[in-house]
Amino acid sequence: MTIPTAVPALDEATDLSAAPLEPWQVVVWNDPVNLMSYVVRVFRTYFGYSLDHATALMLAVHHDGHAIVATGPRETMEVHAQAMHDFGLWATVRKATP
Description:
Layout: E1 24-29, H1 36-47, H2 51-64, E2 66-72, H3 74-86, E3 90-95
Antiparallel strand pairs: 1-2, 1-3
Helix pairs in contact: 1-2
C-alpha cells in the first residue's frame, strides 16, 4: 500500500457556495378523531398562529381534506410534522411545488 507524499496544487478556482435550500411543506390531513377546536388550539399554541389564521387552516383541513400549515427547510418541517404527530394529528412532509 502506498501513501501519497504530496497534495497536488489546485490552479483553478473552486465554487464552494452551497446549493439553495429548496422549500418543504408540512401538510396536516383530516382525520375522524380530533375536534375542530382542538386542531385550532394546536395550530395556535405550536405555531403561534392567530385565531383567524388557525381557524382558516383548520377549515381547509376539514373541507379540503388537508392544509399546508408550514413551509421551510426540510429538517425544520420534519420537526414540525413530528410535533403534529405528538399532538395526535396526521401530518406529512413534502417538497414544495413551484
